[in-house]
Amino acid sequence: MEKTTTSEPNRHLLKRGVADIIIEEELVKLLESGRKLRLKQGFDPSCPDIHLGHVVGLRKLRQFQELGHQVILIVGDWTAQIGDPSGVSQTRPMLSPEEVRSNAETYMKQFFKVVDREKTQVVWQSEWFGKFSLADVIGLASKFTVAQMLQRDDFSKRYASGRPIAVTEFLYPLLQAYDSVVIEADVEFGGTDQTFNCLVGRELQQMIGQPPQQVFLVPLLVGTDGSMKMSKSLGNYIAIDELPDEIYGKVMSIPDNLMMDYFELLSDIPDEELAEFRKAIDNNSVNPIVLKKRLAHELVEQFHEKKAANEAKAHFERVVQRKEMPEEIPGVCIEIGSGTIPICGLCVETGLAKSNSEAKRLLSQGAIQIDGERVNTDTVCIKDGSVIKVGKRRFVRIVDADKRS
Length: 405
Prior knowledge:
- This protein is α/β, with parallel strands linked by helices.
- It is 45% helix and 14% strand.
- It folds into three domains: 11-218, Rossmann fold (3-Layer(aba) Sandwich); 244-321, Orthogonal Bundle (Tyrosyl-Transfer RNA Synthetase); 331-404, Roll (Structural Genomics Hypothetical 15.5 Kd Protein In mrcA-pckA Intergenic Region, Chain A), CATH 3.10.290.10.
- Mean pLDDT is 87; it is low at 1-9.
């Protein structure tokens, strides 16, 4: 059996980017035992994209892998159909098996941009839950009480306010806990919003005579809005599959007070150098934009390559800082007709906005320009070759389909 040793688990592993470890002394003993640990990481493919908030925990998995430990990636194809209620105020809609599988395939491609594929075992919950009978479900549910479930913060708040809680949602923590039993997890990883679920797993293991898993919790990354947890639903996220210019530009948009958290949680820059950054910021001896450019470059290089990071930096300085036109603007072919077009629909059609509601928000914020002029009306005049700019970084050049036919 492959042995792993670490006589003094270093700060980078157990302190930097860590919110809590339950129980740290027990985890230290496991690390010092020389045994190859089984690290549990579960994900619900309810959404196909991974953003920087997920990366905080994935980087920790990679660090443990580099010490020789084994990651067990659990695809929650059953729990995704329930939807983890953590942090939500209402019952989630259930996904179809087809939606779950499609999301999972996309998710795993991105997952292995951070975590070592060769040191990861992928398992699907359906391997065991697909064989569950009603008797098995009742047996699992009988091990916990409703009172215990209501200790979970989001459940208790909804119960107190009279908002509905589906019985299936009570099952979610139990199914996640049973995953730990099946794979005999030594350590389960998650964000601080997963504390309750992970502890249920630890308790269930002890009930059936297994050693209880250690719980490794990482901080929740604040999104680009500077106030809320990074989330797809809030639109304050930076996805790792985004284009280099988008990642760079979004990182440059985060509030200055988040910058050091991002450095600590998402980069390998040594602690000593980060301490120098903090000192320079406190002494006002460095312009924050200089450090933020360093951060943006680090993150683009992490998910693309150094050349792409250099080009994204140059693009940002040219387009955002000097307010020049990009060297290349993608062309979009549309039928202009009379030339008078609803601007919100045009933004959606050209990919400058993801939805009509987003386009309306951008219009109300004065964030849409055509040929350098700010748009403040619902309909606009467009001509062949017009350049539409949305925000600071998104451009398209209109190509009249009638002239190209």
